[in-house]
Design goal:
Elements (H helix, E strand, L loop, with lengths): L7 E6 L8 H9 L8 E5 L2 H9 L4 E4 L1
Antiparallel strand pairs: 1-2, 1-3
Length: 63
């Protein structure tokens, strides 16, 4: 039996990581983001949602 395709979420960085706390900068790197307007496609899991919540003011979810 084949597994159903995992849901994904696409993020785009809209704010700079400069002058942000080190943990927020590390969270952006963990999400695969390091420049403004860069996009990253990730599997939608609770841990990823928690990371998004931590830097919600710097990223946006692309639909």
């Amino acid at each position: 039996m084949a597994k159903a395709a995992a849901k994904t979420v696409t993020l785009e960085q809209i704010g700079s990581a400069n002058r942000r706390p080190a943990d927020q900068q590390a969270t952006l790197i963990g999400l695969g983001l390091n420049r403004i307007r860069k996009q990253s496609v990730l599997v939608d899991t609770p841990s990823v949602r928690g990371m998004i919540a931590k830097v919600a003011h710097i990223v946006r979810i692309v639909e």
